[in-house]
Amino acid sequence: xxxxxxFTSNLKDFKQDQKIVLTSxxxxxxxxxxxxxxxxxxxxxxTLLLEKAIDVKKLExxxxxxxxxxxxxxxxxxxxxxxxxxxxxxLEDYKKDQKxxxxxxCKVYLLEKYFSKKExxxxxxxx
Length: 127
Known about the structure:
Elements: E1 3-10, E2 15-22, H1 28-53, H2 56-62, H3 71-78, H4 81-90, H5 96-117
Antiparallel strand pairs: 1-2
């Protein structure tokens, strides 16, 4: 039996099938490249789904002041009660369990936007 890693998505708007067969010649770098090759499209799909779930234009507009802050102040603000209140207002129509997941997604979305604008790569797939 061969060892392998496989990712398959067969959705209407997101089809992907990638596989890497692991042999004695497969290096850690080969596996890393494989994971990065699937992480990018998956994260892009997650972002697209988030954009369908919430009004990201409103999210960005309500938080545009964050993008002018230095890194330390940005991170402090992202963890502040003021920020949480602002995001919870945007998510007021969602159930409690959905709010928590969407709240964290909003934080990550803004975090990636902020650092990408500064050409700092917040995650491996952004490289």
